[in-house]
Amino acid sequence: GPTLRLILGDQLDPLHPWLAQRRADVVYVLMEMRQETDYVLHHAQKVLAIFAAMRTFGRHLRGAGHRVRYVTIDDPSNRQRLTANLDALIAHYRAVAVEYQWPDEWRLDAQLRAWAAQAPVPVRAADSAHFYTPRDGVARALAGHRQWVMEHFYRQQRRRHRVLMDGDQPAGGRWNFDADNRQPWRGDPPPPPDTRPSHDHRALWHSLVAAGVRTVGDPQADALRWPVDRAEALTQLDAFITHALPHFGRFQDALSSRHTRLFHSLLSFALNVKMLRPQEVVARAEAAWRDGHAPLPAVEGFVRQILGWREYVRGVYWAHMPDYTRRNALGHARALPAWYWSGDTGMACLRVALRQTLDGAYAHHIQRLMVTGNFALLAGCAPQEVHRWYLGVYIDAFEWVEAPNTLGMSQWADGGLMATKPYVSSAAYLHRMGDHCNGCAYDPKQRVGERACPFNALYWDFLARHRERLAAQPRMAVIVRQLDRMAPADLQALRAQAATTLERIDRL
Ligand code: FAD
């Protein structure tokens, strides 16, 4: 019998070493399963895009002469669980062995390891050959540090992989251009064109609905904008490098209600399902700088996200799972407001970010961190509930990257392992970085009263609630001093305002 090689829905890399040769004694197995559609409530586009990309990948493999067993969601033989399907396929093919690529999610890794220990045939695991660093690479790089500062790891990565280096020195003489990358965007330069493909996936959508898969958000099944294969992902990468990368840095932190994407790449889905390799994306960005097409601060800012943050969060995840997703350092327990699932709120910044998320399964980093994340943290929402929301609604949400970003960076639930201070702000920051406040029911300049922007009172209430804890963070010292100097009556008024705000949180 053959060897079965499992390919998970986020392992769609046609350049994987497995595929270098055609082998008659290997059957590649891809499966659409309720186990994967149901572990959290997902955005419709996320399920559609992953399954559509898996189907395309299966067709490409067959076209290249590989043997493929593709189990659709409505295949009568589908047991809807990974290990039950593997057992059935081993029997069906009289397989002699099973091979899988190391999953990126702890959930699947644990499931496969437990199954392998009692499987009827030998089970071997192989590298997915995608990342720069092994799973334990960050833990080794930062061993002994109490806080896992990304910057340490990032500089090592730059040196080790010789990215943006001139000899031993960082290109341009600086490692970090963050200070140049914090401008609001007022309409100039114009936003890049959206050159993404558009696919009709109505047939797939009907079979998902018929199978009873529950989702959230607009499926846009007749015109889905996410790439389904590597060729489309490469076209998208080209368009990003040409049109958006030159401006990526300056407007990296900007917010806009007119052009929500701004100069971001929209490449996270293609990267996370492994249609693109991080190394090639980084190499293209570096070449754009060396060719004089894009300025160094833009290219460094972009490279930092992929060579630095993306690898770093993966290392944090593997070093701290399974405990990490249970952490709640600030003891937050409030339910997430119902309008996170509808976008129905009078707060314009949140409304724009939430509606866009529900319509398109996408929001850029600052929307996730400083709008939806910031509000949930200030309001004291339960981090596990916030985690499940982010894990469900974004096209690029896979737990290895989502959980550290949500629980660590955004909600400070790990008590400061990742972020040296909580990412919180009052309305002033949102007003400075974006244009939402003009069309908002609330006034960013008011701190108390009916029209006061809720971010203001919630911000000071958060600081007061967690003063002892935050005072221990050196980077919070200035803000804690500001809090301490506030007249008691003013603080009292702010905290009363926060209490009223939280009482009517579902109607903000
Ligand atoms: P760009 O801004 O164009 O950045 C380029 C690439 O860099 C991205 O495609 C991504 O691969 C990588 N990148 C950028 N920032 C990060 C980061 N902080 N961590 C890891 N990689 C990064 N990213 C995900 O891929 N999946 C998630 O589930 C996810 N959840 C998040 C949850 C929260 C609360 C926050 C604050 C951030 C989250 N991020 C997540 C990180 C980041 O917001 C997205 O990667 C990014 O917005 C994707 O859009 P883009 O491709 O246009 O990114």
From TrEMBL:
Top-rank taxon, per record: Bacteria
A Pfam family hit: DPRP
Keyword Lyase: yes
Keyword Lyase on entry: yes
SUPFAM superfamilies, alphabetized: Cryptochrome/photolyase FAD-binding domain (SSF48173)
Gene Ontology molecular functions: lyase activity
Keywords: Lyase
Renumbered residue ranges of the record's region Disordered: 166-200
Protein name listed in UniProt: Deoxyribodipyrimidine photolyase
Origin species: Tepidimonas fonticaldi
